[in-house]
């Protein structure tokens, strides 16, 4: 039987966090003969992958020939924000069950995308299931070392400046390494209604009245839900003044929450005053997208311990947790 031509001109398009479309060129004489495609996909960092294993036994994706471009979805657990290399081979299944195969195409590299809004909505739904009842609070607070606040006073015009969010949380979060903001907490102790005296981030605490950051002129977005191999879970929320750069970034990427009615963080008017509540059973991490003036709050030293084990700096999400993972990737 006449040999098959080698596929060439590989094109990868319509890339999402868990799928892509692939097409290539082959000789016209092969179009009616080819019965199957072999597709070899490898994470880019896996430099020891064997691109020729299909010549003996097809161990990766074997797909019946369909018109190109072909959508690849669900055949692998693709991870978001991950670099992959892909190569293809065409084949004719013969009467004896063996394959006549072409040579391998060139290898093409691509990177999968972030979670889309529909994926974040799935995470949001999972977070809502364990959020618990709502507790009142009155201040947002940020813990850090004394030198951090001294630097803000001396070199940043008494302002806490937004900085780039690290890679903690879900690997597919569109905020990681992209959104600038200032992190705050709002969780309170159940028995006192006050912020806890312990912190993993430093013994100095800046407190600011909740209404300074969260009010009807602020949009609230859901950004992530994760854990770090522990029983407790974290939710990341974004507070962005309406029309700000941060708001415009979030609008296209994150689910928008109703500030007065959601399971995580609310601001509502009761008896003519703004009342604030947070979910009891989640540790909330709040990203405020704009600079924060230290003169709008108070700074003081806390009396508790520095619990480093609770730090979420660059924390990696537990990929095996059924509570906070969705099926499209980790």
Automatic annotation (TrEMBL):
The keyword Ion transport does not apply. Keywords: Glycoprotein. Residues 6-115 form the Fibronectin type-III domain. InterPro entries: FN3_dom, FN3_sf, Ig-like_fold, PHYHIP/PHYHIPL, PHYIP/PHIPL_C. One of its GO terms (cellular component) is cytoplasm. Interacts with PHYH and ADGRB1. Its interaction with PHYH suggests a role in the development of the central system. Belongs to the PHYHIP family. This is Phytanoyl-CoA hydroxylase-interacting protein. It comes from Lipotes vexillifer.
